[in-house]
């Protein structure tokens, strides 16, 4: 998907979801000493740093300000040699597309072997309950294809790959160093807990719900706290909150507990500033419904 398609998507999505209390992305900044976020409109791009090595999780839109915002975090795009991709939608791979700024042209990209079928043209990405096909994404980066349950290590950073199909057929989440789960478009946080991601954008909502239940079971078998970090809302270390509504869909056009703290238009970025990025930690999502 070309840059013009990223811009087109921004305009369309802004208009359609304005006032729906759906998108509440994190602003640019640090969650803790290991995890940083860059906000691009409603998409969160994450960076995980350990022992002087930084890996990137998802690559956002085809977006002009990515290099600038990475500078707010003192992360040099040239230093990024490894990028984990949850899925191939343009708001997660745009910075890798052929007509992007090619900040990461030498980086190796990791994604599930099933998801790679979209990039080779064997499968077309469908949204709006299968009625609309998205343009094909094209990129030239070297790819490493992953399978469900595979564990890889990059410069001492442990990465467990977990397949969670539904939003796309090959969507994958990544558990890093047994402490940080990057969920892409698997979980959406409302005011009262986590739901299966936005219903209009899934290949199969039924499969999304099934995958979310399986993911919860996997995490409950683990010991120690895990930060659950989402692609378009916030993060939490409260497992019960994250999976509270795992059998329900985020239905954007149905009145329910969305998030009253979400901006009227999530695509407006006035609150995303260098001063805040350097001075304020990104706090976790809380149960706003319980405070009512």
UniProtKB/TrEMBL annotation:
Necessary cofactors: Zn(2+)
Swiss-Prot/TrEMBL keywords: Hydrolase, Metal-binding, Zinc
A Pfam cross-reference name: Lactamase_B
Limits of the Metallo-beta-lactamase domain: 42-232
Domain of life: Bacteria
A single GO molecular function term of this UniProt record: metal ion binding
Protein name (database record): Metallo-beta-lactamase domain protein
């Amino acid at each position: 998907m070309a840059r013009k398609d990223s811009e087109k998507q921004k305009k369309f999505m802004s208009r359609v979801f304005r006032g729906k209390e759906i998108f509440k992305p994190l602003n640019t900044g640090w969650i803790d000493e290991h995890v940083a976020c860059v906000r691009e409109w409603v998409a969160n791009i994450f960076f995980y740093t350990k022992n002087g090595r930084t890996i990137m999780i998802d690559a956002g839109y085809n977006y002009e300000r990515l290099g600038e915002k990475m500078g707010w975090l003192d992360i040099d795009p040239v230093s990024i040699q490894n990028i984990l991709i949850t899925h191939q939608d343009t708001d997660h791979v745009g910075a890798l597309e052929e007509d992007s700024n090619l900040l990461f042209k030498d980086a190796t990209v990791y994604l599930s072997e099933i998801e790679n079928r979209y990039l080779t043209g064997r499968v077309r990405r469908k949204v709006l309950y299968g009625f609309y096909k998205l343009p094909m994404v094209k990129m030239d980066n070297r790819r490493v294809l992953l399978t469900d349950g595979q564990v890889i290590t990059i410069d001492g950073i442990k990465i467990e790959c977990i397949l969670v199909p539904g939003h796309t057929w090959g969507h994958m989440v990544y558990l890093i160093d047994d402490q940080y789960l990057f969920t892409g478009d698997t979980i959406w946080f409302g005011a009262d807990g986590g739901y299966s991601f936005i219903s209009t954008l899934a290949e199969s909502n039924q499969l999304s719900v099934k995958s979310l239940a399986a993911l919860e079971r996997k995490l409950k078998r683990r010991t120690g706290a895990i930060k659950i970090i989402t692609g378009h809302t916030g993060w939490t270390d409260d497992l019960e909150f994250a999976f509270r509504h795992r059998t329900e869909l985020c239905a954007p056009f149905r009145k329910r507990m969305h998030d009253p703290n979400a901006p009227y238009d999530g695509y407006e970025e006035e609150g995303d500033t260098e001063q805040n990025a350097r001075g304020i930690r990104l706090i976790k999502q809380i149960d706003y419904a319980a405070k009512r």
